[in-house]
Amino acid sequence: MGYLGCHLSSAGGYAAMCKTAAAIGADTFQFFTRNPRGGKAKALDPADAAVLAGEMAAGRLGPVIAHAPYTINPCSQDPRVREFALNTMADDLSRLELLPGALYNFHPGSHVGQGEEAGIALIAETLNQVLRPEEHTPVLLETMAGKGSEVGGTFESLRAILDRVERSDRMGVCLDTCHVHDAGYDIVGSLDGVLEEFDRVIGLSRLKAIHLNDSKNPRGARKDRHEVIGGGEIGLQALVAVVRHPALYHLPMVLETPNELPGYAAEIALLRKEAKA
Question: How far apart are the C-alpha atoms of 186 and 190, rounded to whole Å?
């Protein structure tokens, strides 16, 4: 199997996250670029960033995922909200140049009554402004559950964004198992079928990371409520199938389950054991 880890607090910095990952048996992790409910990032510490960059370069860690804050909405009706999203993403990507090999993931946003087509156009417009030619970090659209006016609840909507982005070479997708299940994709009964559809619509070459989560909801509920591994409607064996799948096993896979560190350590150990069985 590939790289397996979880979401970690970035409060102690990059070097601290590397130590925590090693302590719980993880060889990748995800972190928020700044307070997920706020806007301002901590001052950069190049020496701290160099520790994480070195771990990835040496192969002790796979690609880590930097997650944009939840507060950004690049397809809001409000120009000020869109400007905040643009400035935040541009700042994040500038800072991530210190972490070669990292990935940048974000929720596409909510069109809030404008309609999906308008939302898609605004998201692509933001990406075309933030993807600077001198920068390198891959940017990932996350698959969403489709609740409310969320954009990204179907593979087709993600493809529509990708088709409008000028720096297409910088773009990829992060597949969230809870989200696609809640959006109606049958990853329990037909994982191969879902991946074939993803490949037809988007292309598996675009798939760069997995959020590995169980779901509290039945398939198609469009609610987005994560559950611990094996404790929800997706179930352990279906998630082990994701970890083992030959089209996926090489990707960084990050747990976002409702857990503290001991729970994450137990889930990582369980998934590694079951994947080898």
Answer: 6
Catalytic residue among 34, 95, 107, 170: 107
136 is in an annotated binding site: no
Can you give the pTM of this predicted structure?
0.96
**Candidates 92, 226, 233, 267; catalytic one:** 226
Is 192 annotated to bind a ligand? Reply is no
Among residues 224, 227, 233, 267, which one is catalytic?
224
Question: Which one of the listed residues 111, 179, 181, 206 is annotated catalytic?
Answer: 179
On whether 142 is known to bind a ligand per the annotation, the reply is yes
Question: Is position 256 annotated as part of the catalytic site?
Answer: yes
The one-digit pLDDT tens for each residue of the chain (277 residues) are 679 999 999 999 999 999 999 999 999 999 999 988 767 888 889 999 999 999 999 999 999 999 999 999 999 999 999 999 999 999 999 999 999 999 999 999 999 988 999 999 999 999 999 999 999 999 999 999 999 999 999 999 999 999 999 999 999 999 999 999 999 999 999 999 999 999 999 999 999 999 999 999 999 999 999 999 999 999 999 999 999 999 999 999 999 999 999 999 999 999 999 999 8
Q: Does residue 211 have an active-site annotation?
A: yes
